[in-house]
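#struct-help
A.M.: can someone run this one for me? Single chain, 341 residues.
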Amino acid sequence: MTLLRDQNKALRIGVNHGSLAERMLFTYGDTPEGMVESAMEFVRICHELDFHNIVISMKASRAPVMLAAYRLMADTMDKEGFNYPLHLGVTEAGDGDYGRIKSTAGIATLLADGLGDTLRVSLTEAPEKEIPVCYSILQSLGLRKTMVEYVACPSCGRTLFNLEEVLHKVRDATQHLQGLDIAVMGCIVNGPGEMADADYGYVGKGPGTIALYRGREEIRKVPEAEGVEALIQLIKEDGRWVDPPDLVRVKISPEGTWSGVNACVHLFDRLRCFSCLLSEVSQPPLASALRGFPFPQPPAARFVTAPKRSSIRSGKSSIAITWIPRAPTTRRGGANCAAIC
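D.P.: on it. Structure tokens below:
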């Protein structure tokens, strides 16, 4: 404790439902009560030593157990006069859709109750895949605004266009923006009312016709084929549009067999250098090798008028990189960030 205090470092008191001490299991069984008493033992010790730079986690692989443990922990601390931050998470949640749903069921429920100070979504996947889920949970609860919020109806017999296809087009055109609410609604009957809180609305007005809204106000009607471009133009007129950043597409060829990869590429200092964080590679050894590749310097975006390609080879593996230039855009701090390819 003295060392932590001297270095101003925090201590995490972490209790895992599957790792309770035998004496706790004997007294409380495999229960949230046992988890809370385990944590409180160490909270009281820290308090006696006058060390208060702590954070507490009460993780379980089942959301109902995790919810009960955190709620009981918060109540117990209130009763004893403690007020320490809680680190939220459903541990060992698994992967795919179910892992994300399971994590959201636990974390979002507690956040909505006003509990929780930090969080982690624990997936059996590459660590960087956990971060978008965290952002999405925070945004869905209105605690952060880091991306566009899309409102879209599920479609019905009154829908006047291919709603799913149009939503994808709108998302592709606007997903790089920040802080906007954009609604895509199938018809004029319920659309305007249900999207009233959105900044912009794309609503089916009649066969082949789209009505564009700014808030609750209908601004103009356009042919369906021009709807997405007209929406972009409306956002530009309001001064809320920024051009998309330059895109980098990466393909990897292990021993001559091409496999797709999702790469999040960060371009810093006006595209003079970049680093690549791989999130999906079919062969793990290749993923490790790629992290050591001497990536080439990309061309300066402002002088590029056509796609530029370069490749790197290392043994039997190679990377082909394509820079797709767009109009240079000033970014805060002088940095451009590429979207996930």
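A.M.: thanks! Residues 247-341 have pLDDT under 50 and may be disordered.
D.P.: also worth noting: The longest strand covers residues 247-254.
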